[in-house]
Amino acid sequence: MYIHTITIFSFKQRWFVFFEKKVEILTKTLYHLIYNYYFYNTCCLALHHNVGLFTYLFYH
């Protein structure tokens, strides 16, 4: 009974660690995708709408 419980516990623990790593990878991937998407969109929109301002800021 004791050994059986430990086996289940260690199995659950291993599965949890595996699951945790998967979640971490997914979270990081999602974060990077969202960050890049918003960063890209913001920059592109800003550049598109404020070409004059950006030109002024960078070449003044």
Can you tell me about this structure?
With 60 residues, the protein is mainly alpha-helical. It has one domain (1-59). 95% of the residues lie in helices and 0% in strands. The protein has two helices and no strands. The model has no long low-confidence stretch (mean pLDDT 72). Keywords: Membrane, Transmembrane, Transmembrane helix.
Q: What is the count of helical runs?
A: 2
- Overall pLDDT metric: 72
In what range is the share of β-strand residues? under 5%
The biggest beta sheet reads:
none
> What is the number of beta strands?
0
Distance between the termini: 77 Å
Tags for this entry?
membrane, mainly alpha, transmembrane, single chain, 95% helix, transmembrane helix
Sum this structure up briefly.
By secondary structure, this protein is mostly helical.
What's the SSE blueprint?
Layout: H1 2-49, H2 51-59
